[in-house]
Write a structure and sequence with these properties.
Layout (H helix, E strand, L loop, with lengths): L22 E2 L5 E5 L9 E2 L6 E2 L4 E4 L8 E2 L4 E10 L5 E9 L17 H10 L12 H5 L9 E6 L8 H8 L1 H14 L4 E7 L3 H11 L5 E6 L8 H9 L14 E5 H13 L5 E7 L7 E6 L4 H7 L9 E4 L6 E2 L13 E5 L1 H4 L12 H5 L6 H9 L3 H6 L10 H5 L6 H33 L1
Parallel strand pairs: 1-14, 9-10, 9-12, 10-11, 13-17
Antiparallel strand pairs: 2-8, 3-5, 4-7, 5-6, 7-8, 13-14, 15-16, 15-17
Bound molecules: iron/sulfur cluster (2 copies).
The site of one iron/sulfur cluster (SF4) has 15 residues, from α13 and α14.
Length: 450
């Protein structure tokens, strides 16, 4: 039998916190809750400064077909609603609430009544749940498939492949019942014929837990995946589980698949059982600068400084702070950023790990192409971008790049390939928008001259 070549990279797992049950931190004095913790239109505030709010109360409604409502994570008083600079460099409206420390629960919370696909989707929307593995896509939109016969397989993503991050692992161990109840809801209301719980082979406890739950349950199975990065990437997982390729510009459902993160599934089940929407998040806190790495359950909107403080503070000055894991995480310029719905980790690194190696010239070794899970050509992207050749970038399918960072990680010359890919994608998007605007202008002028 020929050996199967796995694409991606083997990264050090560093799952230091996998054995630690999450600890719930105290109520912060202030939370700052952004209106966009999801892909799509930002939510619209329904409260104003001076309003008293309670835990689980709606503070911002979803604003469009792709959006998600936002709920208060504390009881207290709305202090202000203003723009905050987000980690992506854009300004976003955020609601700041001063906590009264009482954590009074909103008296209008109720368990949703579900007896059809339509009111299941409505409940998922009302839960405020978005892709909790980091993507942040509104889950109700993902699951609202008009023709259910298109769904062949639902993949529950338990392949937590980023180094350090263990919050999904803890959900699979500590909230296994919620994950399971969520899976049964998907099976029932999406009429899923086959559900595969994909877990990497470096999580034997999780595999055992779900294999036991699956025994005797038709249509639900565990797939044991090699622990290679980025196993948890949506397209990678679909290929590795189903041997199907999602074409450029298409969605997983176009190949009969839905991929949903295991913590997202648990959050849906929790809302269906308790009526409490998404107001808190389990996050991994780790990195060489953190005194006591652990998993923490924090109210959404808690400043990351409070979370680090809960972990004993820093043992050395942090030089690099990340939302998320080291491969795909986003650098934070300050400790005042809040915990958001789609955060699964905050990492802080000292001087040694924060150093960026000096890139040297490309030696044309091809390692970046070999390492790319999608077999893209980062060296060609870089050349086309530097030449300002948008047409070529389109032909090279730069938009397929999921920014997983494998190419940069594997490059012996330490070239900043993933950063160039991001710039190249933005450049191509601007070029396409410009062409579209020009075509519309030409067509208007043509119509006026007739
Ligand atoms: S080209 Fe994109 S998808 Fe391929 S390894 Fe690099 S970052 Fe990942
Ligand atoms: S891995 Fe680095 S050095 Fe090798 S071809 Fe790619 S960019 Fe060049």
């Amino acid at each position: 039998m020929s050996a199967v070549r796995l694409h991606g990279v083997r990264v050090p797992h560093m799952k230091n916190t996998a054995g630690r049950k999450p600890e719930r931190m105290g109520v912060p004095t202030v939370v700052t809750i952004p209106m966009s913790m999801h892909i799509g239109a930002p939510a619209e505030p329904v409260v104003k400064p001076g309003d008293k709010v309670m835990v689980g109360q709606l503070i911002a409604k979803d604003a469009g077909p792709v959006s998600s409502p936002v709920y208060s994570s504390v009881s207290g008083v709305v202090k202000k609603i203003d723009d905050m600079l987000m980690s992506n460099g854009k300004f976003m409206k955020a609601i700041t609430i001063e906590s009264d420390g009482k954590q009074d629960i909103w008296d209008q919370l109720k368990v949703p009544e579900i007896n059809s696909f339509e009111n299941f989707i409505a409940a998922v929307k009302d839960s405020g749940v978005v892709g909790l593995g980091g993507a942040g896509f509104p889950t109700a939109v993902k699951l609202d498939i008009k023709d259910l016969s298109r769904i062949e397989t639902i993949i529950v993503n338990g392949a937590e492949c980023e180094p350090y991050v263990t919050s999904d692992t803890r959900t699979m161990l500590d909230d296994a019942e919620y994950v399971w109840e969520g899976i049964k809801l998907l099976q029932r209301y999406l009429q899923a014929k086959r559900i595969v719980i994909a877990i990497e082979n470096n999580k034997p406890d999780c595999i055992r837990t779900f294999q036991n739950m699956c025994s005797g349950n038709n249509g639900i199975e565990v797939a044991i995946m090699p622990s290679i990065y980025p196993q948890g990437g949506e397209k990678v997982l679909i290929y590795n589980v189903l041997k199907k390729i999602v074409p450029e510009g298409k969605l997983p459902i176009d190949v009969g698949a839905i991929v949903i993160n295991c913590t997202t599934v648990a959050a849906i089940a929790r809302y269906v059982k308790t009526g409490m929407p998404l107001i808190e998040k389990c996050i991994t806190v780790d990195g060489s600068a953190v005194r006591e790495p652990k998993n923490v359950i924090a109210p959404i909107g808690t400043p990351v400084s409070d979370v680090f403080e809960f972990c004993g503070g820093f043992k050395e000055e942090p030089k690099k702070i990340l939302y998320g894991g080291p491969m795909m995480g986003i650098a934070l310029p300050s400790l005042e950023y809040p915990i958001m719905k789609n955060n699964n980790a905050i990492l802080a690194f000292g001087q040694k790990e924060a150093l960026t190696p000096e890139p040297t010239a490309c030696i044309r070794c091809g390692t970046c192409i070999e390492s790319c899970p999608l077999r893209l050509m980062p060296t060609e992207f870089a050349e086309a971008y530097e030449a300002g050749d948008a047409e070529r970038l389109g032909k090279l399918k730069v938009n397929l790049c999921m920014e997983c960072g494998c190419c940069s990680y594997a490059c012996p010359a330490k070239r900043p390939l993933v950063q160039t890919n991001r710039l190249a994608k933005s450049f191509l998007a601007a070029h396409i928008a410009e062409k579209k605007a020009q075509a519309e202008k030409d067509s208007r002028e043509g119509a006026n001259s007739r």
